[in-house]
Amino acid sequence: MQELAGYAAAIAPLIDAVHIDVHAADRQLGVEYVRRSGLRPGFLIDQRYVLPLRPLTRAGLATVYRYGTAREQAAEVEAQLLQGALREDGDGGLHATPVTLAFIEGLYELHDRATAKLWARHEELVSELGVLLGRLLDGAERLPGGALELMAPPYEPEGVSPGVALFNRVAAFRYHRADAHAAAWQAAGLTAQEVASLREGPLWEAVERDTNLRAAVPYGMLTEAERALLVQGLRTLSGI
Q1: HSE of 102 in the Cβ direction (CA atoms, 13 Å)?
Q2: Sorting pLDDT into bands at 50, 70 and 90, what band is 239?
Q3: Residues 6+ away with beta carbon under 8 Å from 217
Q4: d(Cα 21, Cα 237) in Å, to the nearest integer?
Q5: What is the per-residue pLDDT for 2?
Q6: Rounded distance, CA 18 to CA 28, Å?
Q7: Consecutive H or E run containing 110
Q8: Bridge partner residues of 96 (DSSP)
Q9: At what angle do helices 2-25 and 27-37 cross, to 10 degrees?
Q10: For residues 196 and 95, is the Cβ–Cβ distance under 8 A?
Q11: Cα–Cα dist 35/235, whole Å
């Protein structure tokens, strides 16, 4: 398990880099798209691969955005309700409205163009990595009340491109490590506010070690060759 923990530590920044690269690639077009939509997107962009499949809840959002404050979260939800991007049912479920589903459809088209341009020379690799990330998402443990349980599986409409599928699977799988990190700092007796201000030192190192051990588990489903392909492939796409 220690070997897999080292692998989990090494691959985490590559996963983050691939995720960030797509957002950076479509930033200019994205700003213009949001302006045309007339929406205040807030967390709708993060939740693009959740809302078409299932409703959100306030408690779930508090888990996903666990480092924010309750006041900030409540204000964001109210803003989305006020602009008609969400509707709340009698049980507290927060559902996408037609205007939000149309917004998300446009986001998928935007991300399709961004990933096609960004990874134009790596079509086969993108498909292979998407398969591996899909297996990791399918097999990763969903901690009860954790973020991954809420964020996976991602919405993949019929005909979704391999680039968009990979992008959203990477985005969703990041919440497995986020849950592992939360479990580690909670086991150390820390609060979200305390860990957010934690700096390098013995306690920080202990939390990171525990995080990597917990985050390592799904990678055991892959063969050594598949793990090598995943890390090298993400390195290729991110240019790291």
Answers
A1: 11
A2: confident
A3: 4, 140, 141
A4: 9
A5: 73
A6: 18
A7: helix 98-118
A8: 86
A9: 60
A10: no
A11: 33
Q: Are 26 and 114 in contact (CB under 8 A)?
A: yes
Tokens of 34: 């949001």
Nearest-CA neighbor of 80 among 47, 49, 35? 47
Residue with tokens 């967390």: 43
Per residue in 138-171, pLDDT tens? 999 998 889 999 999 999 999 999 999 999 999 9
**Can you tell me whether residue 94 is helix, strand or coil?**
strand
Do 154 and 168 form a contact (C-beta atoms < 8 A)?
A: yes
How far apart CA 67 and CA 190 sit, in angstroms, is 12
> Tokens representing 199?
């700096």
Residue for token pair 């969400």: 86
Question: Can you give the residue ranges of every domain in the chain?
Answer: 2-26+98-238
Give the whole-angstrom CA distance, residue 180 versus residue 106.
32
Neighbours of 237 (CB within 10 A): 23
Q: What does residue 54 show for φ and ψ, rounded to 5 degrees?
A: -155, 155
Place of tokens 């213009």: 32
The DSSP line for 43-77 is GGTGGGGTTTTS-B-HHHHHHHTTTS-HHHHHHHH
Nearest to 171 by CA among 25, 9, 49: 49
Return the DSSP state at 200. S
